[in-house]
Write a structure and sequence with these properties.
mainly alpha; 343 residues
C-alpha cells in the first residue's frame, strides 16, 4: 500500500512539474491537452477539474501515508496524520488556498502560460503539430509547413498600435483562431482578456516580458529589443539568433516604424486643417501629434546612437555561454533586466 500510494504521489508531482514549459519533459500547453470543444473556457474548466482532482488525491495520499507510518511506529499519541492544504507542493503558481480553505485557481496565470506557449510556437520553439522542443539550437532549420506559421525572420514587433502584419497581438489572435477555430474566436478572445483583466495588446506591451523574465528566473530565452522609453519593442528567439538580427530589426522594423509614424502624423495634420473637423477631433489630433513627435525623437536617437553599431558589428553568440553572458553582450539594445550584470 505504501509503495502504491508513494508512486501515485510521485506520478502526480512529476506530471505537474512537466506541465510547465520550463521542464525538460514539457510536451504542450495544458489548455490544449484539456481541449474538448472549440471553447477556451471549456478547456480551462476541464483543466481546473482535472488538477483539482489530482491535488486532492495527492493530499489524501499524503495523509494516508502519515496514518500508516503513525500506526507502524505506534505514534498515535504524538503525531497527527493531518496535512494542511497549503503544504501540498503542487500548483503553487497556478492556484491559492483561499480563506474558505479551498483550492482556487488563478485564471490569469493559467492564461499567461497559454500565451507564453503561443509565443514559443510563433518562434518555432514548440509546434502544435508535435510534442516538446522543436527548434533548440543555433542554425537549426525550422519547419516551413507547420499548421501555425513560424515567424520567418525571428523578429516580432510588440507595439501599442498594429503597424505590422506580424504584430504580436495579431499573432496571438491567429494562434487562438488556429487552435480553437474561427467560429468561436471572439468568444475565446473575450475569455482570455477577462482572465488577464486587460486586452491582449495591453498585456503583451506592458506585462508579458516581465512575466517571461520571472518565468525563466532572469534567464529569458526570448529577447526583447527595446528603446529606452519602450517606444519601440520587438521579440526575438535566442536559439534562432544570427549575427544580422539587429540589422534586420533596424532596416525592416524600426526604420519602417519611424516612416509609418511620420505618415500617421501627416494624416493627423490634415484633420487639424480640415474645416469640417470638430474642435474635439482637432484637439485629439494635436495631442496625438505631440505624442508621436516625442516617440519619433526617442526612436531616431535610439536608431542612430545605439542600434546602428550593433547592426554593423554583427556579434556572434555561443549558446553554451548561457543567457546571462549572451544577453549582457547586447544590454544597450535589449530590455533592461535589473541586476543581471551584477549577478
Amino acid at each position: 500500500t505504501i509503495d502504491q500510494l508513494t508512486q501515485e504521489c510521485i506520478d502526480i508531482s512529476k506530471e505537474e512539474w512537466d506541465s510547465r514549459e520550463t521542464s525538460w519533459d514539457f510536451t504542450k500547453n495544458e489548455l490544449l491537452k484539456h481541449k474538448s470543444d472549440l471553447k477556451l473556457e471549456t478547456a480551462y474548466n476541464n483543466y481546473c477539474s482535472y488538477w483539482k482532482e489530482q491535488f486532492y488525491k495527492l493530499h489524501a495520499n499524503e495523509e494516508e501515508l502519515n496514518r500508516l507510518f503513525i500506526d507502524i511506529y505506534e505514534l498515535n499519541d504524538e503525531l497527527t496524520p493531518d496535512v494542511a492544504l497549503k503544504d501540498i507542493t503542487i500548483l503553487k503558481s497556478e492556484s491559492i488556498i483561499n480563506d474558505n480553505n479551498e483550492l482556487e485557481f488563478k485564471a490569469d496565470e493559467i492564461m499567461k502560460q497559454f500565451i507564453s506557449y503561443a509565443v514559443g510556437v510563433m518562434f518555432g520553439r514548440y509546434s502544435i503539430d508535435s510534442d516538446g522542443l522543436v527548434v533548440a539550437n543555433l542554425n537549426q532549420d525550422y519547419p516551413k509547413d507547420a499548421t501555425f506559421e513560424i515567424d520567418d525572420d525571428n523578429v516580432i514587433p510588440v507595439l501599442e498600435d498594429d503597424y505590422f502584419s506580424d504584430d504580436i497581438a495579431s499573432r496571438i489572435i491567429n494562434f487562438v483562431k488556429t487552435t480553437f477555430r474561427a467560429e468561436s474566436l471572439s468568444e475565446n478572445i473575450n475569455f482570455i482578456e477577462k482572465c488577464l483583466g486587460k486586452t491582449i495588446r495591453a498585456y503583451m506591451v506592458k506585462d508579458f516580458y516581465e512575466d517571461h523574465i520571472k518565468r525563466y528566473k532572469k534567464r529569458p530565452i526570448y529577447w526583447m529589443v527595446s528603446s529606452p522609453k519602450k517606444g519601440y519593442m520587438s521579440l526575438s528567439y535566442m536559439h534562432r539568433y544570427t549575427n544580422d538580427l539587429f540589422a534586420r530589426v533596424q532596416n525592416n522594423y524600426l526604420r519602417e516604424y519611424i516612416t509609418k509614424l511620420e505618415g500617421t502624423k501627416d494624416i493627423l495634420r490634415q484633420i487639424i486643417v480640415d474645416e469640417s473637423a470638430s474642435s474635439k477631433d482637432k484637439k485629439d489630433a494635436d495631442k496625438k501629434i505631440k505624442d508621436i513627435e516625442n516617440k519619433l525623437k526617442e526612436l531616431i536617437s535610439f536608431d542612430r546612437d545605439v542600434l546602428t553599431s550593433y547592426a554593423q558589428n554583427r556579434v556572434d553568440i555561443d549558446l553554451d555561454d548561457g543567457v546571462k553572458v549572451n544577453y549582457n553582450k547586447f544590454k544597450d539594445v535589449l530590455y533592461v533586466i535589473k541586476g543581471l550584470d551584477k549577478e
